[in-house]
Amino acid sequence: MLINVVISVVFFLIGFLFSRKNKSKEVRYLRRGIYTKNYTVTENGIQSQVDCQFELGELERTSTKSKVSVISVVPNRISLHEHSWKDKFIKLVNNTWIDSIEIDWIEDDLAEKRNQKIDELLNERDKV
């Protein structure tokens, strides 16, 4: 009987430790925004212009600049939607400082609305 309890506790602790390791850290951004940048790309010896639209998360900021992390990128040419091109575009912008005025900030964030609604509900419950 005692052995069963000890074995159960050991398996529970092992399962608990492994489940904690597998959880990934969720990156929290100060705010999110859209950034469009024009690049010159050479494909098969032919140069062409490409507009890339980045969804960015702001990691840090100063009064004029924002350090950003790329959430996603979409080039305006289908031939550049391959992972190798996307990775190149991401490396150009990821973890760099960009002028904040060049980024169209998403002001009405759904997560922010959800948190406000939860706070309102909790405050109403506390009043009752």
Structure description:
The protein is of the alpha+beta class. Helices cover 39% and strands 35% of the residues. It contains three helices and five strands, in the order αβββαββα. The protein has a five-stranded antiparallel β-sheet with strand order 4-3-2-1-5. A hairpin with a 3-residue loop joins strand 2 and strand 3. The mean pLDDT is 82.
Give the SSE layout.
Layout (H helix, E strand, L loop, with lengths): L1 H21 L9 E12 L2 E16 L3 E11 L7 H11 L2 E4 L4 E2 L4 H18 L1
Features:
single chain; 128 residues; alpha+beta; 39% helix
Q: Outline of this structure?
A:
The chain is an alpha+beta fold and 128 residues long.
* Fraction in helix: 25-40%
Distance between the termini: 49 Å
Rg calc: 23 Å
Q: Kindly state the number of beta strands.
A: 5
Q: Please report the number of helical segments.
A: 3
Low-confidence sequence ranges: none
Sheet of most strands: 5 strands, antiparallel
Question: What string gives the helices and strands in order?
Answer: HEEEHEEH
Count up the domains: 1
Summing up helix and strand content along with how strands pair, one would put the structural category as alpha+beta
Question: What share of residues are in beta strands?
Answer: 35-45%
Strand order of the largest sheet: 4-3-2-1-5
| Average residue pLDDT | 82
Question: What best-fitting shape do the alpha-carbon axes yield?
Answer: flat
